[in-house]
Amino acid sequence: MNEFDAELDARQLACPLPILRAKKSLSQMNSGQLLRIVATDKGAPNDFDEFCRKTGNDLLSSTVQDGEFVFLIRRR
After folding, report:
1. What is the pLDDT confidence band of residue 6, given thresholds at 50, 70 and 90?
2. Does some domain include residue 20?
3. Angstrom distance (rounded) from CA 41 to CA 16
4. Contact criterion met (CB below 8 Å) for 22 and 8
5. Using H for helix, E for strand and C for coil, what is the string for the chain?
6. Which pTM value belongs to this model?
7. Is the pLDDT of residue 1 over 80?
8. What domain range is 19 assigned to?
9. Nearest to 4 by CA among 48, 52, 54, 38
10. Considering the domain boundaries, does residue 39 fall inside one?
11. 15 assigned to active site
12. What CATH number has the domain bearing residue 68?
């Protein structure tokens, strides 16, 4: 069983594409649902932190796994 409702593969995408695709994915989700994002852009941790602060979505986790950034965001 997954611990998230949707997943976004943003590997090999440069800023601002990971954020734009996350915004689109979140807009198609219901409040409280979880989006898991995997990204490789070095700026992604700062970008997603800022994105969540500005949009009111909750950044539940930001980790590095096998050289990739993994984020879990709860839709507001």
Report:
1. very high
2. yes
3. 10
4. yes
5. CCCCCEEEEECCCCCCHHHHHHHHHHHCCCCCCEEEEEECCCCHHHHHHHHHHHHCCEEEEEEEECCEEEEEEECC
6. 0.95
7. no
8. 6-74
9. 38
10. yes
11. yes
12. 3.30.110.40
